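>> received
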Amino acid sequence: MSPNNKTKTLLREASHQVIAGGSAGLVEICLMHPLDVVKTRFQLQRGTSDPNSYRSLGHCFSTIFRNEGVFGFYKGILPPILAETPKRAVKFLTFEQYKKALSFTSMSPGLALSVAGLGSGLTEALVVNPFEVVKVSLQANRDSFKEQPSTFGQARQIIQEDGFGLRGLNKGLTSTLGRHGVFNMIYFGFYFNVKDAIPASQDPRLEFLRKFAIGLTSGTISSCVNIPFDVAKSRIQGPQPVPGEIKYRSCFQSMALVYHEEGYLALYKGLVPKIMRLGPGGAVMLLVYEYVSGWLQKHW
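>> returned
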């Protein structure tokens, strides 16, 4: 193959991964964002002493609907939508590239998939963290949707007050790196290893269900393992308990503080809505990616 044709082939593969990854992310975020709002609200609560504490998942849903309306469940959706195409494009594109590079090492195929997932998650986190900072600050706002500042207004306020650094638009970066690195390491490693181990079905419906079940399990396990990083990220990026005083500073300091003040289970706050979102959401994302990628390979 000539260098020119090789370059065209690589660009074609990359464009397929970018389009399929972006499509997967957009579908997932539109379906699952309300659960992300609920998850963030639970993670921002500081125990039963919090006067705005939600008693249960149902109470949280009903309170948001009553006080903030149906659009309250879509607070902070614009940052992830704006980030979703580059975020998921980076996620799947880098996973494929890391996987390809690791195939030249002596690493076992199963381990290589997990390491490629870890690398893709860390890369994804660098892209998405500024959007996460804006999203969490919008989701923490309990005013009605009409009274809430715009996405760009909130981003502008964060930049004006704290800049672009680790106290401003990139605060909580270490927690985001941990959250995405751990999630993708398990997510990709589990999905592709188990998918290869379980025989495919000739029936398209059964094959769809096989992939969906593996994706659902993969997203659920990943969510359970990485949620302490998610709680730390929400505490760092959300409003501090005392205005002007930074209580939650870094990833492991925040985890230790939550554990000391609120107990071990507090590190798993928001787990139910997170699983409800990223269990089926993870399955949807992998399926959309595989089917869109397959369609592009056949038709483009």
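>> Residues 3-44 form the longest helix (42 residues).
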